Amino acid sequence: MMRLIGQFFSANRKALIGVVLGGVIGYLYWYFYGCYQGMYYMYSENWVNILLGGLVGGLIATAIEEARSVQTEKEGVHNAA
């Protein structure tokens, strides 16, 4: 079981780093710019900002990793020709 968890973390390391960094940025956004009176629910709760930041951070990290792998594949095709 621990081996499977280790394999999961090693395979998804960049995406997980993006989730953590996005969560930290989401918390910092709430801390400095969030609404404290509950007028707008999305920005009034810190946990909502942490979840949304983590989601966006993970999506961005995954998109960057995917774009780099596609670019590497294209360079490999051009070098082989």
- DSSP helical segment count: 4
Total domain units: 1
Shape: elongated
Instruction: Note the gap between the termini.
Output: 44 Å
Beta-strand residue percentage: under 5%
Q: What class, by secondary structure content?
A: mainly alpha
The arrangement of helices and strands along the chain is: HHHH
Beta strand count: 0
Proportion in helices: over 70%
What kind of assembly state do the chains in view correspond to?
Answer: single chain
What is the arithmetic mean of pLDDT?
86
Note down, in words, how this protein is organized.
- This protein has one domain.
- Helix 2 (13-33) runs antiparallel to helix 4 (46-80).
- The model has no long low-confidence stretch (mean pLDDT 86).
- The longest helix is centred in the last third of the chain and has 35 residues, at 46-80.
- The chain has helices spanning 2-11, 13-33, 41-44, 46-80.
- Helix content is 86%, strand content 0%.
- It contains 4 helices and no strands.
Give a topology summary.
Elements: H1 2-11, H2 13-33, H3 41-44, H4 46-80
Helix pairs in contact: 2-4
Question: Which key terms come to mind for this protein?
Answer:
elongated; 81 residues; mainly alpha
Q: How do you describe this structure in short?
A:
By secondary structure, the chain is mainly alpha-helical. It contains four helices and no strands.
